[in-house]
Amino acid sequence: MTVTDLPAVNACLNGTSLLLLVAGYWNIRRGKKGAHRACMVSAFLVSILFLACYLYYHAHVLHTPFTGQGWVRPVYFFILITHIVLAAVVPFLALATLYRAVKGQFDKHKRIARWTYPIWVYVSVTGVLVYLMLYRLTPAP
């Protein structure tokens, strides 16, 4: 594996995180607390692995230009900007949510999870979309 493989790895990690988040939500809605916990901790660990790979990639490849033209260009940049802004918030929300669960503060955990979950899902989905738009759906520069 080379550094050029990391965008695809990162997209897979984002997709995996998304599936774990949805499974965790599904499990808690059905009262399966143990399965919920396992899914959410796994989503958190996958996201940490994603962050490590992402930082490594961008330390070696500083910039990848978007070559799409026409209507897709503003759509891409809207998705990218919202993704970046919300991705910067997710680690703090995830840590706060996880901390409250670990401490048994489930009322507080539930209150913050109502914000954390949809933002984290959005970031995971848009991470995959950014990858597809940047590396798969537009011509190489």
What descriptors fit this protein?
141 residues, mainly alpha, elongated
Shape from CA axes? Answer: elongated
- The overall pLDDT, averaged over residues, is 95
* Strand tally: 0
Low-confidence blocks of residues: none
How do the strands and helices of this protein lay out in sequence?
Layout: H1 6-29, H2 33-60, H3 72-102, H4 106-136
In short:
This protein is an all-alpha fold. The protein is built from four helices and no strands.
Structure notes:
This protein has 141 residues and is mostly helical. The chain has one domain. The protein is built from 4 helices and no strands. It has helices at 6-29, 33-60, 72-102, 106-136. Helix 1 (6-29) runs antiparallel to helix 4 (106-136) and helix 3 packs antiparallel against helix 4 (106-136). The chain is elongated, with a radius of gyration of 16 Å. The two termini are 22 Å apart.
